[in-house]
Design brief:
Elements lengths: L3 E2 L16 H7 L16 E11 L3 H11 L4 E2 L7 E6 L8 E9 L2 H17 L4 H5 L4 H20 L21
Parallel strand pairs: 2-3, 2-4
Antiparallel strand pairs: 1-5, 2-5
Length: 178
Amino acid sequence: MAPFQPPSARTTASHPAILPSFDQMFGAVFARENQLMRVQPRQGMYLACALLARGNVSIGDLNRGIVRLLPTLQVAPWNPEPFKLGICATPPTGLPTSLLSLANNSGIGATFERMHERFAKLYRRRMFLHHYTQFMPAEDIQAASHAVLELCQDYHELPHCCMPTKLLQPMPLGISFV
C-alpha cells in the first residue's frame, strides 16, 4: 500500500487550493479511500510502515502523528518499532509538504486472493497462455500460482498469530571496536 498526501493541489485564480495541515495529512494517509488498492488498512495487521515526508516537517511532527495513530492500528507483536521515518527538506513542486506511506499490511491478502481467482478462471480456459509459454514453461506458471496461494494463506493467518514465546536475539558479527 502506498498512499500519498495531499493527492492533488490544483489551483485556479477563482479557486485557490485549500491545503490540509500535516496532522490531517497524517490521518488521511492511513484512510481507506486514499489507498492505491482496494484494501481496508485499519482491519489488517501492519508488519512495517515507512513514512516519507517532504518539506517543512520535523521528526517531532512525525512522532506526534505516530503516537496519536498507533493505538488505532493493529501492529505485529514481534515488531516493537514498526515505523521507519524519512525526511527530505526539499518540498515537492507546488506544495509546501507531502507525506508518503509505504506499508506492508495483512489486508493486502484479500487483493491477492481476488487476483488469483481471476487468474485461475483464465488459466482453466488456457486463455492467453500461449503468450507466456513462449518465454517460460507452463510448470513455472503453476508454481507461481501455488506461491501466490501460499502468500494468501500466510496473510490470512497473520492476524490470528500470537507472539512467539522466545524472540531470537541478534548475535554480534565480527569484532567490535567500541
